[in-house]
Amino acid sequence: MGRSYDDLVREADAVSVAGWDFSWLDGRATEERPSWGYSRLLAERMAEAQAALDLQTGGGEILAGLPALAPVTVATESWPPNLPLAADRLRPRGAWLVADDDEPRLPFRDASFDLVTSRHPVSTWWAEIARVLRPGGTYFSQQVGPYSVAELSEFFIGPFDGSSRDPARAVKAAEQAGLQVVDLRSERLRMEFHDVGAVIYFLRKVIWTVPDFSVERYGDRLRELHDLIEAKGPFVAHSSRFLIEARRSGGTAA
Known about the structure:
Blueprint: H1 5-14, E1 29-31, H2 38-48, E2 51-54, H3 61-64, E3 72-77, H4 82-90, E4 96-99, E5 113-119, H5 126-132, E6 133-144, H6 150-157, H7 167-176, E7 179-193, H8 196-205, H9 219-232, E8 235-248
Parallel strand pairs: 2-3, 2-5, 3-4, 5-6
Antiparallel strand pairs: 1-7, 6-8, 7-8
């Protein structure tokens, strides 16, 4: 017999969702990883960079986990609960953390960086990225694709238009900003949620899945979901991811 609905809800609604570490879901939810291996590819590019900027770094987990950073490495983050987490991880690595307001304009001079990166950005400011890149510099990013976790969104809010994160739109926006897209890959990946607490934690953390989510507002649907998982097993959804790499023309990054 599984844990009670009330216990699962109480626990998941109280736990901290600061940072971008999903280890709380170990044993409670699973997600396939993209085949390209973002961290490995990022490490290769970081090892060759002289000045790097990581946008919307979250709690700094990805950047701090790299074997080496560029001699000048800067990260930005806007969400206050993430700032102390990112600072604790990045300062020992010699990286600078900038508290940003998550809106253009980026607080950096033109042509400051030969590498700009971002994993799962909420938004991508292509014109600003092009501005702060040096000639020959690269933007390298793994992003949430169209209709990601649509099954979960639709369970709570019904049909919706999840096409805004289409990779083709990203390519067009990059080219309009004067960047050349040199790599584009996309995949859909299986996710399983094994209890309603895992769903609550995920929705509290990945807030764009159900933008107005709260336990109180969606209590009836959460109860239905709990009963469904108890009767039929894990709730299955599919995440959407794409990898994009774009380069500023005009010489070498060094």
